Model the fold of this input.
Amino acid sequence: MRRVLLDTRYTLVGFPTAVIGFVTMVAGFAAGVGTAIVWIGVPLLAGTLLVARGFADAERGWLSDVLKRPPVRPRYRPAPEGAGRFRRIVNPLTNGQSWLDLLHGILNFPFAILSFVLTVVFWAIPILGLTYPLYGVVTSRIPGNAELPELLGLGSGYLVNTIFYVSLGLVFTFVLPFVVRGAALVRAGLGRALLTGVAELQERIDDLAEGRAAAVSAEANALRKLERDIHDGPQQRLVSLAMELSRAQRQLAKDPEAASATISSAISATRETLDELRALSRGIAPPILSDRGLAPALAALAGRCTVPVDLDVQIVGRFQAAIENAIYFVCAETLTNVAKHSRATICTVQLLRIGDVLMLTIGDDGVGGAHVAKGHGLAGLADRLRAVDGELTVRSPDGGPTVIVAEVPCA
Done:
């Protein structure tokens, strides 16, 4: 019932608004074009566009109720800094959306008439039909009008008329929500196309641009971190290893036992370097992820974590490489943070698919305090997820527990 009332309000209240807007905009546009040759029309056109913007903003507010979508308002470019008075006055003429607002104010008029008429008719017939039995009762009780029921057909044919009109009222009552909804959607469709379509497209473009920038930033940060880790770890070990081997080579002729000990130390250093390189490679693209998919890769991560992990993977099949890499990287980094900072005794990892969304949930019973502020590791995870239209949610009050949820579209 609430839906019907909202649609009815939209079509009824919007009709006089559409009439006023149509008259104002047609008159303003005609006057502006007619006097543009003497420059008076230019400010008139600009003023008409501003009026059209006001009506368009009111329509956008109603559209959010009818279409059950959050209100979307396009960005109108302001006048350049330092612009003169005339440039500021005519600035609405340079905005494409302003002309769409004007076009909507003109084209909306016939749609508003159609939706208004349909709404009035399909409300009036059920009301009149269902209240028809009251006519005879009321008119027969009017003093001096005893013959009025006969004149109105409420005599011998009263029962037949009552059945007919009540049946008609019931049929129209059943059809009413569908017709009113359709009438509202016809008019709202025009409003969405002209008043919010460009804004929604621009919002999508901005989201894609933000995602691309986030991907570039995440990759750049990952490369810098990898470069730093290689420089501080394996590179230093390899330099030390080269020095050890050079010393063993010099000792070989003079002191074979010392050379043997040095070579043994170098072999141990080589193994440690290989282990460190393997650990670094896990954050890039491990072969197990490429070959076997997310479930085995996450199981390998859980097995290497120093904190006990309860793993629950409820997915089957493979996904796009970018999606699998993002999920794997988020899990790897989060488990690393759990092992280093959380002081947790247990960690849970759950991966499942809900509709067209992959949901990775990681929780621990540690000290909490994790957040996605810039400069922290989780900010990089949020950027990486935005690159695949994903979202990161962190709930980590001081004292714990911590729950991190990564959602990634996988349609």
